[in-house]
Amino acid sequence: MEWEVVIGLETHAQLQTKSKIFSGSSTAFGAAPNVQANAVDIALPGVLPVLNRAAVECAIRLGLAVGGRIAARSIFARKNYFYPDLPKGYQISQYEIPVISGGSLAIIVGQGEQGYEKTVQLTRAHLEEDAGKSLHEDFHGKSGIDLNRAGTPLLEIVTEPDMRSSAEAVAYAKALHALVQWIGICDGNMQEGSFRCDANVSVRPKGSEKLGTRREIKNLNSFRFMQQAIDYEVHWQIATLEDGGRIEQATVLFDPATGETRAMRSKEDAQDYRYFPDPDLLPLEIIPEWIARVKAGMPELPAEMKLRFAPDYGLSAYDAAMLTVSRETAAYFEDCVAAAGRENAKLCANWLMGELAARLNKEGGEIAAAPISPLQLAALVRRIADGTISNKIGREVFDALWNGDAQDVDELISARGLKQITDGGAIEALIAEVLAANPKSVEEFRAGKEKAFNALVGQLMKATKGKANPQQVNELLRRKLSG
Amino acid sequence: MINRSLKELGAALAEKRISSVELATLFVERIERLNPTLNAFITVDKGKTLAMAREADQRLASGLAGPLTGIPLAHKDIFCTEGWLTTCGSKMLSNFVSPYDAHVVSRMKLAGLVTLGKTNMDEFAMGSSNETSFYGPVKNPWDTARVPGGSSGGAAAAIAARLAPAATGTDTGGSIRQPAALCGLTGLKPTYGVVSRYGMIAFASSLDQGGPMAKSAEDCAYLLSAMAGFDPRDSTSLDRPNEDYGRDLEKPLAGLTIGLPREFFGTGMAADVRSAVDAALAEYRKQGAVTVEVSLPNSGLSVPAYYVIAPAEASSNLSRFDGVRYGYRAPEYADLSDMYCKTRAQGFGAEVKRRILIGTYVLSHGYYDAYYLQAQKIRRLIANDFVEAFRHCDIIMGPTAPSTAFAVGAKSDDPVAMYLSDIYTIAVNLAGLPGMSIPCGFGEGNLPVGLQLIGNYFEEARMLNVAHRYQLATNWHKRMPENL
Amino acid sequence: MPLNLDQVERLARLSRIEISAADSGETRDQLNGVFALIEQLQAADTRGILPMAHAVELAQRLREDIVTESDRREAYQAVAPEIENGLYLVPKVME
Ligand SMILES: [Mg+2]
Ligand SMILES: [Zn+2]
């Protein structure tokens, strides 16, 4: 049987506020246990929550970025369950009326030829508080509870079950990861848990309308683990069903060591969270003026930028999408084009997505902190465009800039004598020398072997140390041989 | 001295006729003598009290004193008090020395009031007789075989027996007004949001409100002015200008329209309560007020609606008592879940557990709409009834409680009978309105009767005025239990 | 409708309150007494009435994003049942 994979994602993005969602404690990462857990966070008797305005603004920013509806009036609810890292015995979240509903996110799945675009519909995004952490290291067979993280603001962003493969799920997660950073609401640090995904995975016979029973993979904190976990889970579900088994709804964890998913041990009898409106918190009202104010302070969004890039810079939709994967990439590109000239935009894009991306990928690091500045790359691009250097020599210049051997492109070109040889007479003289030295190749070419021509070009370029203009060499050589 | 009003005590302190230390000592000694009988206090700490009194004396000497500086005050043990045991009447918090002060406690400290101790109460304020306290029942000073009412029963007994000139209380369904009525005191539950709930251990958050308990309306006006006020830490605290709640005390009542809800004057009221209430209404007419009949047609559903909403909120509010970060933890358990279950089984008393179970039920899947949501809709109907009634009157009056103080043990095995003790007070909490109880006579067995005053939203000053004018003409509020 | 013992047991489990087998019958009876009272709500016609969750019907007040709290761990943990190295200790948490 052919199976269809159905995936929906729930992402918890920690919001970049200074203080917690309902208290004045710091949200800074890495403090000693419980020193950032104040009376409200540890739920002393009698304490009360007061909502952080900045957390709401983050939600509004996301709502604007995904084209969701921003509720004029939303409700905070209590989700009741007992767990030692949940000090109040309930989590303040949103249930019936979330702050954001609907919206969508465009994603690019795969690369190059196989790449395609897709739109993932969002169900909702709601504000809630994070829990603390249970540390399972050995405390004489006990667990230690650190409540520093308790009360950190979260935006839980929930998709429709729109994704059909682990690749789509990862592409969505990456796009959302870039977006939340782009709009400045989340630092995206996955190691520190600032951006964590739960994947609801089910399979169904291809063509079936009915959704299969889903299992929820909790707390995927890297894209690689997400891919592995979903792939494992999909295989497991299909194998189970093909063996005549049944899928039970469950919450599962991914073990990176084994690459497997397993159901969580604490099989709480059918959870009943007893959601109800939090009596400590009146309805959250967001007036249109507030939304307008937030909108005015928003950066240009990737979707808008992508639409603008293609016509403005004469780029393909794919290039435009690649250049807007992050705000830093887009900014780098636009700074580079501004200096290199709009007519060189395509060349800038090629260098950025080619050599620069490859180096960053290989050596690690963020584009914003690349050893080559947008202005340096623009200078390089200009010298290629005006024929001062060849593309090949360009790579040598790029290396020197990357390694810090030089700062100024023009100085480097003249210091190393990298200027392209464009003097026809000089090139013709060299051609005569090369033909004289390679009679065999000349003979083969005359016998119809095109390969021999390339060999002669290679010899010529070698003789000029790559500085000859390849096009010019081609033309002159061909004229000479046919002459 | 023990019968003096707060104004008189303030004057005595200001004129150095007595020091705060002397005054505190006087009350501490009465507590030492009478508390073993009454059990009105859970915690007294003479050392801390006298230290605060000494500080107050310094303030008085330096001329930085306010009208309440140096006057002793008892706090209901539901208010967190830094450095003091704060038990909320429960074994669960039998070892909880609060690391912080409730907003109300800070405000009272700021006004220079001296903390006399922490008063007994029904466990987590769940009760109407003070019999659910882990620290034993409180006795009514008028008749120690009877209950003082609840849940602020310790505060009521303490003031009635003159162990304290005044006290803080809280009222979720009548917990200030009903004990005030049963002990012959004046008590006021403000409009929801006027007094900060920060540091007041939550029972039912959408209903809880702190307020003053004292001998007279005038005293309550002083206390409320000190207690009320905006608190940014409570997001339901209302950001309104501070008020002098005593500003209208002396205004004559001519032209006042008093609404008498038909439903409050039915068969449920005991005869002795009825005659005292009727007599009080006659006094008001004598002062120029007119009475009109009004109707609160849905008030009959206030008790069932309350016993859905309050337990629902309580079941969630009390989840934090899990033996992890503070409070009681069971000595033996098999694993984490067992630790929770045993801690909560041993740490909570029967009534608290009952309400947690009720609350869990009405919120659970499949029952939420029929119970919780339905109760909230009825809550709106009840609130709307008051809006309509206040179109026809300035203030509503009726009995505070259906009977005078009942015998210890009379209702403790019948939760529903106990719940009906609050039949006249609960609707006020559901609507969020201010309510008061003032002494209006004595019933059988020389037991006090309370008259309930219900004001429109933010009409506390008006209510205090109406109560004060009555107290100028009567002396029920000045009586104290004899044989103590 | 009256509760049975299974339902009482489930409520107790959800509430994390141990109820001994000996007590569950009495608990059930008392709960059923209260539910009989609550059942009166069903008689009221509330069609078209909006639920009232709060005593005041205003918008939520928000706070500015400012860190106002400093470390008070020692004071808070002075009342904790069991701590070690600044952590609250509990019986082993199973996932
Ligand atoms: Mg979720
Ligand atoms: Zn969540």
Structure, explained:
The complex is a heterotrimer of chains A (483), B (484) and C (95). Chain A has 483 residues and is α+β, with helices and mostly antiparallel strands. Chain A contains 15 helices and 17 strands. The N and C termini of chain A lie far apart (67 Å). With 484 residues, chain B is of the alpha/beta class. In chain B, helix 9 (302-317) packs across helix 11 (350-363) and helix 9 (302-317) packs across helix 12 (368-389). The mean pLDDT of chain B is 97. Chain C is mainly alpha-helical and 95 residues long. Chain C has a domain at 5-43. Chain C has a two-stranded antiparallel sheet. Chains in contact: A-B, A-C, B-C. Chains B and C meet through helix 9, helix 10, helix 11, helix 12 and helix 13 of B and helix 1, helix 2 and strand 2 of C. Strand 10 of chain A pairs antiparallel with strand 2 (87-91) of chain C, so a sheet runs across the interface. The structure holds magnesium ion (MG) and zinc ion. Residues 10, 156 of chain A line the site of magnesium ion. Magnesium ion binds next to loops of chain A.
